[in-house]
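Form 12-C: Joint structure prediction
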Amino acid sequence: MTTPGNDYIKPELMACCGSREIEDNDLVIIGTGFPTMSANIAKHIHAPNATMMQESGVIDAQPKRTALSVGDPCLNPGAAMIGGLVEIMGMFLQAGWVDVGFLSGSQVDKYGNINTTVIGDYDHPKSRLPGSGGANPIGAMAKKTLIIALHDKRRLAEKVDFITTPGYIDGPGSREKWGLPPNTGPQVLITNKAVLRFDSDTCEAYLESFHPGNSIEEILDATPWELKVADDVHETEPPTSAELKIIREVLDPGRMISIYEKKGYV
Amino acid sequence: MNKVMTAREAISTHVKSGDFLFIGGYICRSPFSAIHEIIRQGINDLTITRSNAADDFDMLIGAGCVKRFIATFLSLGVYGLGRCYRRSLEKGIPHKIEVEEYSNLSLPMMFLAGAMGMPFVPVKDMLGSDLLNVKSFMGENKFKLIDSPFDGKPTLLVPALNPDVGIIHVQQADESGNAQIWGIGGDCQYGANASKKVIVFCERLVSRETIGKDPSRTIVPAPKVVAVVEEPFGAHPGYTPGFYDTDFGFGYLYQQASNTEAGFKDFLKEWVFDLEDRTAYTEHYIKKLGYQTFTKLQAEFDYGYPVSYAY
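Section 2 - Result
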């Protein structure tokens, strides 16, 4: 089963890392791209009873093509239920039903706080980004938040310019202080070089595994904070042949995932 | 009561400069026809709102119609950041709009509260984030953080919103305004019902009898509606389930055009100002991009199971 495919690309490996965080019977809120891919791999490999939903209002969509947005037309026919934002974000997420949320950020810091609002000063932005959308409530209330980011000193930060979505905020006790629901928060930060997990005492992201071809030294160098390394740090398990088969033959025969290589996920 | 009129009449009669507008849609059923009409009529100083805004809001902002935006998000989806939105906030072109930021939980809940006649609503998001550290035109009324009178826990209250006008695009409506949708809802239902009056754009006008064959699909009933506009292809380049697909090619065309201020102006001239209505728009689309491109967008039919309400 674990024959490493030599020809996998980084985005496929990252999608598999996301997939492995999803357990059977999980309710998962997904966006497009990596999250969709990860959740679908999980459903085919080890979590057949996971249920996916999109914030726009869809539960258990049966898309016949790759959805390019969370409001994509292909999410409509065949879904189990379609409502709107109040139903998904309120009746499921705020009500505490969502197990996994999947977010990406233009900037992510060591506590898993995510910035998708602004680079630079808020009132005089260097670069104005889209804003929260569903990210803030997902990061606040999903039991496990999985974060995807590029691993360099611009995308990762000691402290983000703007906390759009709370991770562990200022560190231990912060989520509790703000009254965010217990047992929620960032679970893992999946980058193009490594998998970082969050320490339960310090709330800081530490290096759990390095992707094949990426050295620990290179990863430490590309991280803007003093990255702690797990005692049992190891190489990330490459995509299994079963995972690759699902990705290439079932989920993404057109290899759309390769566009992430152009976005720097190499 | 027959409320059917043209887009021009509906917008000129019911929308005026300075109004607060809810404009529904979530890529699904964007009321583009209304957006173009607002721009054509030079209506400005608007406050606009919706969760997850896209190219239609970007266009209104670029065209200078907007003063204030109660926002959660604005992007062009697969085509990246909203160019006009960025130019407004980063460079003040055509002017800097004021933005009050919430999230895709809190804003829909503010519409829900508005629709239900509640003064405010508690929400569990935004806590611990910088969304609580930035306040714009709503000032101290953006939110209130209190200790819950029930258990003492920090509780965030956000105010109800009641826009002056709600504008939505739906699959079908009758002449008095009973409006029916199917497919992704976004914040359409509560946003429209929170509004003081509603303008309904529809793909097809149907009889009151047709509405009655499946009344559970009605999201806004006639008493709230002041105008009904039959506007086939009216959500393009967004989509309408059962009618036509998202036009990704056109989305790219908009992104390329809106990359520069000059390109955006040319786009507005070609696709808004030089066309008198949606019919002219559709004709221009077919002439410019080909009938095949147009027909390729049209949905196949896959009728659902008919429901029976009989007893």
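Section 3 - Comments
Chain A has eight helices and 15 strands. Residues 10-262 of chain A form a domain with the Glutaconate Coenzyme A-transferase fold (CATH 3.40.1080.10).
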